[in-house]
Design the sequence.
């Protein structure tokens, strides 16, 4: 099934977000690569996903390389989330690029013929520059 996820950059001076149609069976590791491609970042830092009340909450469920859950957890097993909790993606522990990921209310549908997924269906704001002072 095809879901639409909204990826929103958090705590950045220039807002950016994108709606991405993606297979519900996509793993978190694959989602990481989709987000990297959408923002134009190089895949050169560690990352993690977490479920929590906010992006820096102490109490959270973490999906990272250490526990290996990045590779075995599909997005369809995460949603729907518990009330007041969200899915976050942290890329680069030094620069701390935080993204909030939500499942939109757009209709779930079967993949369409001749359409390549994942795909960006809308984008707003300015893409961040990974290394602005480089």
Sequence:
């Amino acid at each position: 099934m095809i879901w639409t996820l909204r990826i929103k950059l958090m705590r950045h001076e220039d807002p950016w977000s994108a709606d991405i149609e993606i297979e519900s069976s996509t793993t978190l590791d694959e989602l990481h690569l989709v987000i990297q491609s959408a923002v134009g970042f190089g895949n050169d830092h560690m990352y993690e996903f977490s479920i929590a009340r906010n992006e820096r909450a102490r109490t959270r469920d973490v999906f990272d390389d250490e526990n290996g859950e990045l590779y075995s957890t599909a997005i369809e097993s995460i949603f729907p989330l518990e009330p007041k909790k969200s899915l976050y993606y942290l890329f680069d522990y030094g620069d701390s690029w935080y993204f909030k990921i939500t499942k939109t209310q757009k209709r779930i549908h079967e993949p369409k013929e001749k359409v390549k997924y994942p795909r960006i269906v809308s984008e707003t704001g300015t893409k961040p520059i990974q290394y602005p002072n480089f």
Observations:
- Residues 47 and 91 are 4 Å apart (CA to CA).
- The mean pLDDT is 95.
